Amino acid sequence: xxxxxxxxxxNPTATGNRGEYLVVRLPERGNWSLSDGYHEEPIPANATGVxxxxxxxxxxxxxxxxxxxxxxxxxxxxxxxxALDGYFPLAASGDRIALRRNGTAVAxxxxxxxxxxxxxxxxxxxxxxxxxxxxxxARTENATVTPFVLPxxxxxxxxxxxAADDRLLLAGYTxxxxxxxxxxxxxxxxxxxxxxLVEGSPVGGFSARSARLLDRIAAAGVEVRVLDGDPxxxxxxxxxxxxxxxRAVVLTENxxxxxxxxxxxxxxxxxxxxxxxxxxxxxTADDLAALFREDAAADDAMPWSEFRNDTEFHxxxxxxxxYPTRFETPAxxxxxxELLTTPGNAADRLVARIDAADDRVLGVVPRTGGxxxxxxxxxxxxxxxxxxxxxxxxxxxxxxxxxxxxxxxxEGEPIEVAVSEPRGRFGKVHAKGLVVDDTxxxxxxxxxxxxxxxxxxxxxxxxxxxxxxxxxRAYAADWxxxxxxxxxxLLGGLGAAxxxxxxxxxxxxxxx
Length: 512
What we know:
The chain is α+β, with helices and mostly antiparallel strands. Helix content is about 25%, strand content about 30%.
């Protein structure tokens, strides 16, 4: 058994980080100590095995749990909690902790900022909030898939809600739509099991409009829960999805007029259900229902009544735009679907798909976090090896400056980057999606720092050429105002017609 630092918890949610601790593994008794380069603290001389160490063991006891015991001890017993008699703080802003024997470092952990309420473990190699377990990507084969875009098709995301007979689970960042509230209440009235889960601290505050709607929904017997407990597993519950019987709706848009109401945003969405060929298999809806139950049952999810009694609500505007329908929702197709989530697997899977691209990558997102963002770097790598790569970002006033800086930073590279010019077809870009060869990815994930590691996000990767082509056509029209179509190569996928003539077509069709 080698000496090792097994776990760090430098930033509990308690005032003054009360109860912070670390867990070490000591193969035998000896002259052990801890050092951060400024402080040196001896470990109790008779300590051996897996030991939890804290300056405040009274408060640390409540923070240690069975998961810590199993991870630290290899499943053979609980770690012993011992008091550090001297002063040895764990810096939340980052530190270098050394486990020493006879003054010589035998195990070292360097860490950056420790998010509040998160623990680091050696077997994870990352920070995770208490109560959170990453989920593997879940795959459903031969699913029925219907893609759509907003504001063109505002009826498509709510039709499954209207038709639900058995279960209706709605998860969102915010809920501000009268129409959606009406459908939830109507479903509850006809005996459907209806549940709602929303974020408690959205940017700008929790709106009075949303509170009024949730009051009405809860009064109809709907279970409404809010993710706002302490400690929180996620910085934001930013996912936007619904489960209606055996169908799932996954969106880039919020459940409000500007999003699913079709009043402002360019958004992407998809409805997926059970195919006849896979009638007995588990569906994406089942996987999302399991995710919903897990998130809604966690310690940081509180009942609406409890949240409401302790929250100040804020005013909010209402979108009233009207936009033409240019992209009719196509007939359903059959596709393989992969459910991706964050924190956890989504960023890795997106980067892997981009790194494997052969012909095209079309990305659309409001903001990226800059040229060194992990996904942007993957786009740049793809462009460098000859893949046609285009990235469309928001031109909204609050995104414009940063996105113009991105265009300038990537000028001269083979990747094409444009700031959106809606020209009356929609209000602003809010979609978050990718077309990678013949796969489309749709979901709630922005690319800014922390979204992939700290937020709850939900995405679907749909492996089907017709679905990818639908989004590619909408993308082509949105590129710099729709005045110029994308090159033939980007729209044609892997068609044989591209052999030979495709290169010429790409050169002849210019962007303006």
